[in-house]
Amino acid sequence: QKLCRKQTQKHRRGRRHRFLRAAASSRRPDRSDTPMPSRSLRVAVIGAGAAGLVAARELRREGHAPVVFERTDGVGGTWVYEADADASASPEPLVTQRRSNLDASLRTNLPRECMGFLDFPFVAGPDGDTRRFPGHAEVLRYLQSFARRFDLDGLVRLETEVVRVSRETSGTSWRVRYSRKASGSEKRETDEEVFDAVVICNGHYSQPHFADVAGVDAWPGKQLHSTSYRVPEPFHGQVVVVIGCGPSGTDISRDIAGVAKEVHLASRWSLSATSEKLPGHANMWFHSEIDRAQEDGSVVFHDGSRVKADVIMHCTGYIYKYNFPFLTNDATVSVDDNCVDPLYKHVFPPQVAPRLSFIGLPLKVVPFPLFELQSHWVAGVLSGRFKLPSKDEMVRDVTAFHSRLAARGWPRRYTHRLRDREFENEDWLAEQCRRGGPEGWRREMFDAAMQVMVERPENYRDEWDGGDYDHLLAQANRDFAAHCQRP
Ligand code: FAD
């Protein structure tokens, strides 16, 4: 924790300078003065989560005709809670293809004000969850009301899964094959349509990442991933080892500790040579990383401590896999070590830009505002209002970007982790779109949330409203009021 805190403080100092710069340029021009687009295209959007919804809105605002394909029966993506996951866990790790990774008690890890789209404030309504860090149902309500407000529902084809995207021989359009339930029958039928462009918004949180634990194959207990966790009851009286102390690891441990016999958090961040009891909890311990699991049911930690455990819960952050099973080689991108390559600014594959694009790949960001900026950029480039560099220049930019990461010793799988580069990326996108980026208060709120999450993972959400951030909330409310007055 000490190490995390030090890193966060250093990181925050650097960000403060950028924040002050950004705050000075936080006014967003009114979108009504944007010129008419020169080209209107029919665009397939894959996925109706937060990214797909805002992409559809931006495309339509720009004069395009988007069609959104969504394989499930509703909009909202990740934020649709699926209560029926089997939290009692099978003996094998549950590798699911589910849409929802949420547990019943999940609350946002960002204050709502900073999390919402830039021009659709995420404010508490009279009937919903009014907490500053609301539960998942409130986020879904917000996304559904976003879809209603911008009249997007009519653009979405539900229960329609895109199964193949291939380039037409003309090179400028894409054939999209999709599968949907045939009317009046349980059978599925496939169909195809040709679009001028495709925007991929299929999310990337559906393939859980499991920690490598030596000896786990012979270990007799149960394993599951945080994405399969819903409620604590099945862990009643059990000894649970939770791997990872990121947001899901800390939230789930606390949840489970209410019913479990013991909860042991294993973290690579532990600096202690021995395991420690977590203050304020009678049945929670903090350990270093797991060294191995053994046939006799014990789990041995690097610090030398060991426990006989019933369950290993993998809360291995949100390091999930990018997967585009519907893309043919025509897309000219591949995924290697969780890096989608080549991609110009995480959005356009140079060879087929701008007719194919990806929204929402970056990690360690505030997602909704970033999706909005990326979507605005894509829509404007497709209409011809914003210009891309030549293919060669984009390829050179991508190559230089990878060289910079390699020089820092970063593995390829960190390519889309923006973290420190998030604000820079947003400012760059905003500049391309000739608009302001996320407001200064939003960024400062994000930094503050990251810091308290590390310092007080257990209760930062409920202790936020202590007056420290009143000036940021006041600024947010002023900006929101200004938005609401706009036509
Ligand atoms: P998704 O929400 O995954 O949506 C993708 C959609 O595409 C899905 O509806 C899926 O069904 C559909 N789809 C996929 N493939 C196809 C296909 N072939 N054909 C048709 N449809 C398809 N963000 C925050 O801002 N704050 C938080 O507090 C926060 N907490 C999180 C907690 C958890 C546990 C997780 C997993 C994520 C959290 N996030 C949070 C990040 C969250 O993922 C983003 O906020 C955002 O919802 C991602 O949206 P998306 O549209 O990119 O992807």
Distance separating the two termini: 47 Å
Largest sheet data: 6 strands, mixed
**Helix-strand pattern:** HEHEHHEEEEEEEHEEEEEEEEEEHHHHHH
Strand content: 15-25%
Q: Give, in spatial order, the strands making up the sheet with the most strands.
A: 8-16-9-10-12-11
Shape: globular
- The CATH topology annotation of the domain at 42-75 and 152-206 and 319-438 reads as FAD/NAD(P)-binding domain
Instruction: Specify the CATH homologous superfamily of the domain at 42-75 and 152-206 and 319-438.
Output: FAD/NAD(P)-binding domain
Cofactor: FAD
EC number: 1.-.-.-
Keywords: FAD, Flavoprotein, Monooxygenase, NADP, Oxidoreductase
Family: Belongs to the FMO family.
Write the layout of secondary structure elements.
Blueprint lengths: L1 H23 L17 E5 L3 H12 L3 E5 L42 H4 L20 H14 L6 E2 L2 E8 L6 E8 L6 E8 L1 E4 L21 E4 L13 E5 L3 H11 L4 E5 L9 E2 L6 E4 L2 E4 L4 E4 L4 E3 L2 E4 L19 E3 L2 E3 L14 E3 L8 H17 L7 H17 L14 H11 L7 H16 L4 H4 L6 H16 L2
Parallel strand pairs: 1-2, 1-7, 2-3, 7-19, 8-16, 9-10, 9-16, 10-12
Antiparallel strand pairs: 4-5, 5-6, 11-12, 13-14, 14-15, 17-18
The structure holds flavin-adenine dinucleotide (FAD).
Flavin-adenine dinucleotide binds next to helix 2, strand 4 and helix 6.
